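R.M. (postdoc): so does anyone remember the format we settled on? I'll just put the structure tokens first.
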């Protein structure tokens, strides 16, 4: 049960925190890259379902750690579970923001 003085964070608040996390290899937000598939909040616990730019991404543990740390900054968040999934596979042509597509040269 959430403390009466702390309200559950909104999806938008959690997404804003995740927007602060960049993929270190290309220095673009994981949200703008389309790597975040879902974020849910349940009684202090946050579940993030996301992917990486490739299954062999050597910086996956760093990104996962940053996602955890950023979401823990939100009042009312007690724990964060970051699930890395490979389905659907990440495709920047359909999942990345228009700004990211331009920066990556994807037309």
């Amino acid at each position: 049960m959430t403390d009466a003085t702390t309200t559950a964070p909104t999806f938008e608040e959690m997404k804003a925190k995740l927007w602060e996390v960049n993929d270190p290899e290309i220095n673009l937000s994981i949200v703008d890259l389309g790597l975040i598939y879902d974020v849910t909040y349940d009684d202090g616990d946050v579940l993030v379902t996301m992917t990486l730019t490739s299954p062999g991404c050597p910086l996956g543990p760093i990104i996962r750690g940053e996602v955890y740390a950023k979401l823990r900054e939100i009042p009312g968040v007690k724990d964060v579970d970051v699930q890395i999934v490979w389905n659907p596979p990440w495709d920047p042509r359909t999942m990345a923001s228009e700004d990211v597509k331009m920066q990556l040269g994807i037309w």
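R.M.: ...and that's the designed sequence above, right after the tokens. Also worth knowing: The beta strands are 22-23, 28-29, 36-42, 45-50, 79-84. Residues 11-88 form a domain with the GMP Synthetase; Chain A, domain 3 fold (CATH 3.30.300.130).
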